[in-house]
User: What shape does this take?
Amino acid sequence: MLSLLLTACSAPTPQTAFNPRSDYAAEGLDLFQVIIVMGVVIGVLVEGVLIWAAIRYRHRGNDQLPPQIHGNTIVEIAWTTAPVIVVGYILFLTLPVIFQTQAPAPSSSMNVEVIGHQFWWEFQYPDAQVDTANELHLPVGRTVNLILHSNDVIHSFWIPALGGSATRSLDTPTSSGSHPTRPASSLASATSCAAIRMPTCASEPSSSPRLTLTPG
Assistant: This one.
């Protein structure tokens, strides 16, 4: 069973979100890891106390019924305050990420019109007056504003290395390379929807002719 589970950790893992290649993806992963660590620590502590209490106060031989009490003010305050503090801390970490990632696109960002079709993706680069199909090109180090549209169902764009599934995305690729993209939609457009795959290529602006074209 363990061997079967470990096969999921073998390389390559092109669909993993644990290999961020943009500032948005890195911020999301950092937040996710903090919450996971906190959840594991709290879970271990709670289970540890539960197991200790079950062993320490288990029924033995001729044990009599212990004195019955109604509540404990200190304990009730503690288990009410502790979750509030934990959730408050998560909120404190999450709010800056939300405001930063959902902020309006800066004027220097590159707009890309992403149009979801039933079996393919169309990308329009207004600044360069270039269209591509099933292949997205992004410049490293420059903020890109992906503006999503659809010709049929409500598509949701997903580039794991650049961030999670979204209906609007604001990303700044931090390294060059090709990243796989998978589609998602709120409605099943057809049985072949899951087969719509395409690469997302991040490169230095000077090395990508499609990104250095000027209108004209």
In short: The two ends are 61 Å apart (CA to CA). Strands lie at 110-116, 121-125, 130-133, 136-139, 144-150, 155-159, 163-166, 168-171, 177-185, 198-203.
